[in-house]
Amino acid sequence: MTEDISIERVGVNDIHLLQEISQSTFVETFAKDNSPENMKDYVENKFSAAQLMNELSNAGTEFYFAKNAWEVIGYLKLNQGEAQSELKDKNTLEIERIYVRASHQGKYIGQLLFKKAINQFEVGRYDFVWLGVWEKNHKAIHFYSKNGFVPFDQHIFQLGDDKQVDIMMKYTGKD
Questions:
Q1: Does residue 144 have an active-site annotation?
Q2: What gap in Å lies between CA 107 and CA 38, rounded to an integer?
C-alpha cells in the first residue's frame, strides 16, 4: 500500500543511505545482463560516496527517497540545466534515475517517484521532461510508455567497457 510511503528530499546527511540504495538497486536491476567486471567498475565509480556527494551538492540536481517507516525502498534523481547528463537545456528536466528495490516492485513505488518527477516538471514549467532507458530494459520502457513518454533519440551509455544503447524518451504533458 502506497499510503505508508513518504517521498523525502535527500540531504547531505543521507549520503550513505543514498550510496547503499544506488548500488543495491543498480545491481539488482542490471547484474544478470552484464559482466561482473563492468558492474563492479560502474558501481564503484558512479556510486562512490565522493561522486554522489558531488552530485548531491550540485544546485541543478535533486534526489528523493521513497521510504516506508523503517527503510529507504527507492529513489529518484532529477537534473535541470547544466546538471543534465545531455541536452543541458534550461527548459528541460531530466529524470536520470528511478529505482525501486526488487522486494518492493509492483507496489506502485515507482509510480509515486514518477509522480514526484512530473510534479517538479509541472511546477518548473519546463518544455518537456526526458530520460534515457537501456534498450534491453523492456520493463522500464513499458513503464515510461504507459505514462506518456515517447522515444525521440538515442545515446550511448558506457557500462565499464560495454557501450550500450539507451533510448531517449520525453514527456511534454500534452496529448
A1: yes
A2: 30
